[in-house]
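FIELD: query
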Amino acid sequence: MMPSASAIHPERPACRKASSILIAPWRYKRLALALPDVLGLRQSDVVLSIVPMFHVDAWGLPFAAAMLGIKLVLPGPCLDAPSICELFRCEGVTFSAGVPTIWMGMIFT
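FIELD: result
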């Protein structure tokens, strides 16, 4: 909130509290993933995020996992089907997010 240069009272911000309230949900929408009715995540879950971190689906998942105390598994550079299946088996993954190309590779191998 920057003060307006043409304001009569320059110490007052040009942006009002109402506009900050309207913008707030867009800033914190990724935190909504931790709500029970959104993804149904619980502390006992193990989350595997196969989605690239620049993808919209991955923006909130690590934050929601941290907020709920969920074990977060990241695949690293190995995104081939056998490596992902091994992660599911070894880590006991109960929830995962991934792009369709990952799932198709796992189905057809």
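FIELD: remark
The domain at 17-107 is CATH 3.40.50.980 (Rossmann fold).
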